[in-house]
Amino acid sequence: MTDRNTAESTNQREAARTRDTDPGVLTASLAELRHNPRLFLPFLLAGLAVSAINAIHRIDPIPTRHVETILEGNINVAFVGYPAGYRSSSLVLEPVLGLRLPYLLWGLGSYVFSLTILSVAGVLVISRVVDVEPTIDSWVGFGALVLAFDLVDRTLGSINALQEMGLLFGIPILAIWFLVFIRLFATPGLVVQGRSLGAAIYDSRRITRGHSGGIFVLILVIGLGNAVLGAIPIAGTALSTTLIGALHAAVIGVFVRQTSPISTGP
């Protein structure tokens, strides 16, 4: 009887992994947000805070890099791996390190604060969707993941060769970029569930197999939605963070909830 129950449980888990759940993830996420609009609140506050910091950086001596929007002819998939909005300006970290102490503290402090408030919003929404109580390890792990995603995104964005390469080399690089984000798509949700970063990455790679097409569509929806809302003058960052940030967090939570992986970390 035990062997039979174990086999049935295994078959159910395999069925959950292999069935095409991805098209339903977006619908379920929108329903989650519609039935619980308070999920928008953490990202509304985060969006307002990030917008205020960006506005201050436009008039202070902290070096920033302007990011072109769709209205300026730059169509991109604004997806950074963690729930966030579109950044029309980006802090350039390298020159900040050479500033005088007050500006150095303000520059690094505003950067850390922006990531922290986005991390808090992400954990609050994802934990609510997957119905778990986040632990200290979850908060720390999620923050570390957000920092890693952000630093990698900034590094790649600062390499001119990657931005200016033609289709011949650009398409393979873009394909690799999408594949990496598809495999890491569930990592933030798994960290909120209590896994270590290593186990979350391992399980994310495992549960996203068979769902690559659906996750690719989700990344396009989130990334293009960010880019479109981010192009709105003045309010773009706040709107994209509030709406698309909350949607991204809900999508991660719903996907993790549907796949219900059992941790088999390395």
Automatic annotation (TrEMBL):
Residues annotated as signal peptide: none
Residue span of region Disordered: 1-21
UniProt keyword list: Membrane, Plasmid, Transmembrane, Transmembrane helix
Transmembrane segments: 39-57, 103-126, 138-157, 169-192, 213-232, 238-256
Transmembrane found in the keyword field: yes
Keyword check for Acetylation: no
Protein name: Glycerophosphoryl diester phosphodiesterase membrane domain-containing protein
Organism listed in the record: Halostagnicola larsenii XH-48
